[in-house]
Amino acid sequence: MTHPVTGIDHVLIMGEDLDAAEAQYRRLGFTLSSRGMHPPAKGTANHTIMLQHDYVELLGILQQTDLNRPRFEAVKRDGPGLHAVCCRIEDAEAAALTLSDLGISTEVPNSFERAVPLADGTTGRAAFSTLNFRKLDVPVGLLFMCQHKTPETVWLPDLMRHANTATGISALKAVCAAPSAEAGRFARFWKDASVTHFSGGASVTTGTQSARLDLMERTTLEQRYPADWINATARGGYAVLQISVLSMGQVLECLERAGINSRATAEGHAVAPELAGGVILEFV
Q1: ∠ at Cα 277 (78, 59), nearest 5°?
Q2: Matching CATH topology for 8-160 and 166-283?
Q3: What pTM value is reported for the model?
Q4: From the centroid of its chain, how far is CA 2?
Q5: VOC domain location, by residue (predicted)?
Q6: Neighbouring C-alpha atoms within 13 Å toward the C-beta of 16
Q7: What is the CB neighbour count within 10 angstroms for residue 148?
Protein backbone atom coordinates (compact mmCIF):
# COMPACT_ATOMS: atom_id res chain seq x y z
CA MET A 1 0.00 0.00 0.00
CA THR A 2 1.14 3.58 -0.68
CA HIS A 3 1.40 6.07 2.15
CA PRO A 4 -1.17 8.80 1.35
CA VAL A 5 0.55 11.84 2.91
CA THR A 6 2.85 13.57 0.42
CA GLY A 7 3.95 16.78 2.15
CA ILE A 8 2.92 19.86 4.10
CA ASP A 9 -0.08 21.67 2.64
CA HIS A 10 -0.24 24.65 4.98
CA VAL A 11 0.42 25.89 8.50
CA LEU A 12 -1.96 27.57 10.94
CA ILE A 13 -1.14 30.65 12.96
CA MET A 14 -3.94 30.65 15.51
CA GLY A 15 -5.24 33.27 17.90
CA GLU A 16 -8.32 35.00 19.21
CA ASP A 17 -7.64 38.40 17.55
CA LEU A 18 -7.88 37.79 13.83
CA ASP A 19 -8.07 41.52 13.08
CA ALA A 20 -4.66 42.07 14.67
CA ALA A 21 -3.05 39.14 12.86
CA GLU A 22 -4.48 40.30 9.54
CA ALA A 23 -3.10 43.82 10.03
CA GLN A 24 0.34 42.49 11.02
CA TYR A 25 0.73 40.26 7.97
CA ARG A 26 -0.43 42.95 5.57
CA ARG A 27 2.23 45.27 7.04
CA LEU A 28 4.81 42.51 6.53
CA GLY A 29 4.20 42.67 2.78
CA PHE A 30 1.87 39.72 2.26
CA THR A 31 -1.28 39.64 0.12
CA LEU A 32 -4.14 38.17 2.15
CA SER A 33 -7.40 36.63 1.04
CA SER A 34 -10.61 38.27 2.15
CA ARG A 35 -11.95 36.92 5.41
CA GLY A 36 -13.44 33.46 5.12
CA MET A 37 -16.14 32.49 7.58
CA HIS A 38 -16.28 28.81 8.47
CA PRO A 39 -19.52 27.01 9.36
CA PRO A 40 -20.89 27.90 12.83
CA ALA A 41 -20.01 24.42 14.12
CA LYS A 42 -16.33 25.21 13.56
CA GLY A 43 -16.48 28.59 15.32
CA THR A 44 -13.60 30.02 13.27
CA ALA A 45 -12.72 32.46 10.48
CA ASN A 46 -9.54 32.87 8.46
CA HIS A 47 -7.33 34.72 6.03
CA THR A 48 -4.94 32.80 3.79
CA ILE A 49 -1.51 33.75 2.44
CA MET A 50 -1.20 31.74 -0.75
CA LEU A 51 2.25 30.65 -1.93
CA GLN A 52 3.41 28.51 -4.85
CA HIS A 53 2.87 25.04 -3.39
CA ASP A 54 1.63 25.70 0.15
CA TYR A 55 0.19 28.51 2.24
CA VAL A 56 -0.13 30.13 5.63
CA GLU A 57 -3.52 30.30 7.29
CA LEU A 58 -4.32 32.95 9.88
CA LEU A 59 -7.06 31.31 11.92
CA GLY A 60 -9.23 33.22 14.35
CA ILE A 61 -10.97 31.26 17.11
CA LEU A 62 -14.24 33.16 17.42
CA GLN A 63 -15.99 30.90 19.91
CA GLN A 64 -15.50 27.46 21.42
CA THR A 65 -17.33 24.57 19.77
CA ASP A 66 -17.08 20.80 19.98
CA LEU A 67 -15.23 20.75 16.64
CA ASN A 68 -12.62 23.36 17.54
CA ARG A 69 -12.04 22.39 21.19
CA PRO A 70 -8.38 21.24 20.74
CA ARG A 71 -7.50 24.48 18.94
CA PHE A 72 -9.45 26.68 21.35
CA GLU A 73 -7.77 25.02 24.33
CA ALA A 74 -4.31 25.29 22.74
CA VAL A 75 -4.65 29.04 22.22
CA LYS A 76 -6.11 29.62 25.69
CA ARG A 77 -3.41 27.54 27.36
CA ASP A 78 -0.34 28.32 25.26
CA GLY A 79 -1.02 31.70 23.65
CA PRO A 80 -1.31 32.69 19.99
CA GLY A 81 1.15 31.38 17.44
CA LEU A 82 1.92 28.59 15.01
CA HIS A 83 0.08 25.70 16.62
CA ALA A 84 -0.83 23.42 13.73
CA VAL A 85 0.51 21.87 10.53
CA CYS A 86 -1.72 20.49 7.79
CA CYS A 87 -0.55 17.71 5.48
CA ARG A 88 -1.30 17.05 1.79
CA ILE A 89 -3.60 14.20 0.84
CA GLU A 90 -5.75 13.42 -2.20
CA ASP A 91 -8.72 11.75 -0.48
CA ALA A 92 -9.54 11.98 3.23
CA GLU A 93 -11.68 8.85 3.44
CA ALA A 94 -9.13 6.74 1.60
CA ALA A 95 -6.27 8.22 3.64
CA ALA A 96 -7.96 7.22 6.89
CA LEU A 97 -8.24 3.61 5.74
CA THR A 98 -4.69 3.39 4.40
CA LEU A 99 -3.16 5.01 7.47
CA SER A 100 -5.05 2.59 9.67
CA ASP A 101 -3.57 -0.30 7.69
CA LEU A 102 -0.13 1.27 8.26
CA GLY A 103 -0.75 1.37 11.99
CA ILE A 104 -1.31 5.14 12.18
CA SER A 105 -4.45 6.25 13.99
CA THR A 106 -6.67 9.12 12.86
CA GLU A 107 -9.95 10.68 13.88
CA VAL A 108 -13.15 10.92 11.82
CA PRO A 109 -12.95 12.96 8.55
CA ASN A 110 -14.77 16.29 8.55
CA SER A 111 -16.04 17.99 5.38
CA PHE A 112 -16.93 21.67 5.04
CA GLU A 113 -16.86 24.60 2.63
CA ARG A 114 -16.72 28.38 2.63
CA ALA A 115 -17.60 31.15 0.19
CA VAL A 116 -14.78 32.71 -1.89
CA PRO A 117 -15.05 36.12 -3.64
CA LEU A 118 -13.67 35.76 -7.18
CA ALA A 119 -11.93 38.34 -9.38
CA ASP A 120 -14.91 38.61 -11.76
CA GLY A 121 -17.18 39.71 -8.93
CA THR A 122 -18.91 36.37 -8.48
CA THR A 123 -18.71 34.11 -5.45
CA GLY A 124 -17.22 30.63 -5.63
CA ARG A 125 -16.92 27.89 -3.05
CA ALA A 126 -13.87 26.32 -1.47
CA ALA A 127 -14.54 22.78 -0.29
CA PHE A 128 -12.37 20.61 1.93
CA SER A 129 -12.25 17.36 3.87
CA THR A 130 -9.91 17.28 6.86
CA LEU A 131 -8.60 14.40 8.92
CA ASN A 132 -6.80 14.72 12.26
CA PHE A 133 -3.94 12.65 13.56
CA ARG A 134 -4.31 11.81 17.25
CA LYS A 135 -2.81 14.56 19.42
CA LEU A 136 -1.05 12.05 21.67
CA ASP A 137 0.89 10.70 18.65
CA VAL A 138 2.19 14.11 17.52
CA PRO A 139 5.45 15.40 19.06
CA VAL A 140 4.77 19.12 18.48
CA GLY A 141 1.52 21.03 18.18
CA LEU A 142 -1.44 19.73 16.21
CA LEU A 143 -1.15 17.74 12.98
CA PHE A 144 -3.91 17.02 10.49
CA MET A 145 -4.53 16.46 6.80
CA CYS A 146 -6.58 18.27 4.16
CA GLN A 147 -8.14 17.16 0.91
CA HIS A 148 -8.70 20.15 -1.39
CA LYS A 149 -11.82 19.48 -3.42
CA THR A 150 -11.63 22.86 -5.19
CA PRO A 151 -7.96 23.94 -5.38
CA GLU A 152 -8.82 26.35 -8.19
CA THR A 153 -10.69 28.58 -5.72
CA VAL A 154 -7.91 28.48 -3.11
CA TRP A 155 -4.72 29.06 -5.14
CA LEU A 156 -5.99 32.18 -6.91
CA PRO A 157 -3.32 33.99 -9.00
CA ASP A 158 -4.05 37.42 -7.51
CA LEU A 159 -3.46 36.06 -4.02
CA MET A 160 -0.07 34.53 -4.91
CA ARG A 161 1.68 37.84 -5.65
CA HIS A 162 3.28 39.44 -2.59
CA ALA A 163 5.12 42.73 -2.22
CA ASN A 164 7.77 40.92 -0.16
CA THR A 165 8.24 38.35 -2.99
CA ALA A 166 7.32 35.37 -0.78
CA THR A 167 7.17 32.06 -2.66
CA GLY A 168 6.85 29.25 -0.12
CA ILE A 169 7.33 27.82 3.34
CA SER A 170 10.96 26.78 3.71
CA ALA A 171 11.01 25.33 7.22
CA LEU A 172 9.34 25.17 10.62
CA LYS A 173 11.44 25.13 13.80
CA ALA A 174 10.43 23.92 17.23
CA VAL A 175 11.98 23.28 20.63
CA CYS A 176 12.15 19.60 21.59
CA ALA A 177 13.73 17.93 24.60
CA ALA A 178 14.74 14.88 22.54
CA PRO A 179 14.98 16.02 18.89
CA SER A 180 16.30 12.78 17.39
CA ALA A 181 13.60 10.64 18.96
CA GLU A 182 10.83 13.11 18.12
CA ALA A 183 12.05 13.40 14.53
CA GLY A 184 11.64 9.66 14.18
CA ARG A 185 8.10 9.89 15.51
CA PHE A 186 7.32 12.69 13.05
CA ALA A 187 8.80 10.92 10.02
CA ARG A 188 6.17 8.17 9.99
CA PHE A 189 3.48 10.71 9.08
CA TRP A 190 4.86 11.38 5.55
CA LYS A 191 5.39 9.06 2.62
CA ASP A 192 8.85 10.33 1.64
CA ALA A 193 10.15 11.56 5.00
CA SER A 194 13.80 11.29 5.95
CA VAL A 195 15.66 12.35 9.09
CA THR A 196 19.00 14.13 9.31
CA HIS A 197 20.71 14.55 12.68
CA PHE A 198 22.90 17.48 13.72
CA SER A 199 24.39 18.72 16.97
CA GLY A 200 21.51 19.64 19.25
CA GLY A 201 18.78 18.77 16.79
CA ALA A 202 17.31 16.84 13.87
CA SER A 203 15.59 17.73 10.59
CA VAL A 204 12.70 15.94 8.91
CA THR A 205 12.14 16.31 5.17
CA THR A 206 8.45 15.90 4.41
CA GLY A 207 8.26 15.49 0.64
CA THR A 208 8.79 17.21 -2.71
CA GLN A 209 8.19 20.98 -2.66
CA SER A 210 7.34 20.67 1.01
CA ALA A 211 8.62 22.44 4.12
CA ARG A 212 11.25 20.93 6.38
CA LEU A 213 10.80 20.41 10.12
CA ASP A 214 13.76 21.37 12.32
CA LEU A 215 13.52 20.08 15.89
CA MET A 216 16.08 21.53 18.31
CA GLU A 217 17.09 21.56 21.90
CA ARG A 218 16.34 24.91 23.53
CA THR A 219 20.02 25.87 23.76
CA THR A 220 20.53 25.16 20.06
CA LEU A 221 17.60 27.36 19.03
CA GLU A 222 18.86 30.14 21.33
CA GLN A 223 22.11 30.19 19.34
CA ARG A 224 20.06 31.35 16.35
CA TYR A 225 17.29 33.52 17.81
CA PRO A 226 16.94 35.70 20.94
CA ALA A 227 15.70 33.87 24.02
CA ASP A 228 13.00 36.48 24.67
CA TRP A 229 11.68 35.95 21.14
CA ILE A 230 11.46 32.20 21.72
CA ASN A 231 9.69 32.84 25.03
CA ALA A 232 7.06 34.92 23.20
CA THR A 233 6.03 32.07 20.87
CA ALA A 234 3.24 29.57 21.53
CA ARG A 235 4.23 27.02 24.15
CA GLY A 236 4.17 23.54 22.67
CA GLY A 237 3.94 24.91 19.13
CA TYR A 238 6.45 26.00 16.51
CA ALA A 239 8.79 28.87 17.35
CA VAL A 240 9.95 29.79 13.83
CA LEU A 241 8.29 30.01 10.43
CA GLN A 242 10.75 30.37 7.55
CA ILE A 243 9.45 31.89 4.32
CA SER A 244 11.38 31.67 1.05
CA VAL A 245 11.53 34.90 -0.96
CA LEU A 246 12.82 35.96 -4.36
CA SER A 247 14.33 39.25 -3.18
CA MET A 248 15.61 40.03 0.31
CA GLY A 249 15.97 43.64 -0.81
CA GLN A 250 12.23 43.89 -1.40
CA VAL A 251 11.57 42.25 1.96
CA LEU A 252 13.64 44.90 3.69
CA GLU A 253 11.92 47.66 1.72
CA CYS A 254 8.51 46.36 2.86
CA LEU A 255 9.64 46.24 6.47
CA GLU A 256 11.18 49.71 6.31
CA ARG A 257 8.01 51.24 4.84
CA ALA A 258 6.00 49.66 7.65
CA GLY A 259 8.45 50.78 10.34
CA ILE A 260 9.18 47.16 11.32
CA ASN A 261 12.59 46.30 12.73
CA SER A 262 14.15 43.00 11.67
CA ARG A 263 17.15 41.07 12.89
CA ALA A 264 19.80 39.63 10.57
CA THR A 265 20.17 35.86 10.99
CA ALA A 266 22.51 33.24 9.57
CA GLU A 267 19.96 32.56 6.83
CA GLY A 268 18.17 35.86 6.27
CA HIS A 269 16.17 38.36 8.32
CA ALA A 270 13.71 37.66 11.14
CA VAL A 271 10.85 39.58 12.74
CA ALA A 272 9.85 39.27 16.39
CA PRO A 273 6.77 37.17 17.26
CA GLU A 274 4.95 40.17 18.72
CA LEU A 275 4.83 41.54 15.15
CA ALA A 276 3.90 38.25 13.45
CA GLY A 277 1.01 36.62 15.28
CA GLY A 278 3.10 34.86 17.91
CA VAL A 279 5.76 33.19 15.74
CA ILE A 280 9.30 34.25 14.78
CA LEU A 281 8.92 35.02 11.08
CA GLU A 282 12.16 34.55 9.16
CA PHE A 283 12.58 35.50 5.52
CA VAL A 284 15.24 33.42 3.73
Answers
A1: 80
A2: yes
A3: 0.96
A4: 25
A5: 7-141
A6: 10
A7: 18
